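Q: What residues go here?
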């Protein structure tokens, strides 16, 4: 399940949630309980990857994000 990063506009905290892609569209509540949050670029989970693996995965995610992904299409925020 992918991990998504969010930022709270109430307390400026950033946090991550692991949720399904479907739920990624849903509003996230920050650890302090605020619901005025925005989704940041998807982060890649750092589980069991070498440095090279993380770099490759990060590049792939960036390309996907820029090439017609939700954020690339301007529908985020
Ligand atoms: Zn907050």
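A:
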């Amino acid at each position: 399940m992918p991990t998504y990063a969010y930022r709270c506009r109430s307390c400026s905290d950033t946090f991550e949630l692991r949720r399904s892609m479907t739920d990624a569209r849903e509003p996230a509540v920050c650890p302090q309980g605020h619901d005025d949050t925005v989704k940041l670029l998807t982060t890649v989970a750092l589980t069991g990857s070498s440095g090279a693996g993380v770099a490759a995965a990060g590049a792939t995610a960036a390309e996907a994000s820029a090439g017609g992904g939700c954020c690339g299409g301007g529908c985020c925020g």
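A: Context that may help when evaluating the design: The beta strands are 3-8, 14-18, 37-39. The pocket of zinc ion is lined by residues 8, 10-11, 13, 30, 32, 34 (CB under 6 Å).
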